[in-house]
Amino acid sequence: MIYLDNAATTKLKEKALEKMMPYLTEEYGNPSALYLHGGHARHAVEDARDVIAGLIGAERDEIVFTSGGSESDSLAVIGYARANRHKGHQIVTSSIEHHAVLNACKALEKEGFEVTYVDPSADGIVSVNDIEKALRSDTILVSLMTANNEVGTLQPVNETGALCRSRGIAFHTDAVQAFGHIPTDVRENFTDLMSVSAHKFGGPKGTGFLFVRRGTVLQPLVYGGGQEWGLRNGTENVAGIIAMAAAAEDCIKNLKETQEKVLRLRERLIDGVMNAIEDIKLNGDRTRRLPGNADLLIKSVRAESLVIRLAARGICVSASSACASRDNRPSHVLSAMGLSDEEAVSSLRITIGEENTAEEIDATVEALKTTVEDLRSLRR
Question: Which pTM was predicted?
Answer without folding.
Answer: 0.96
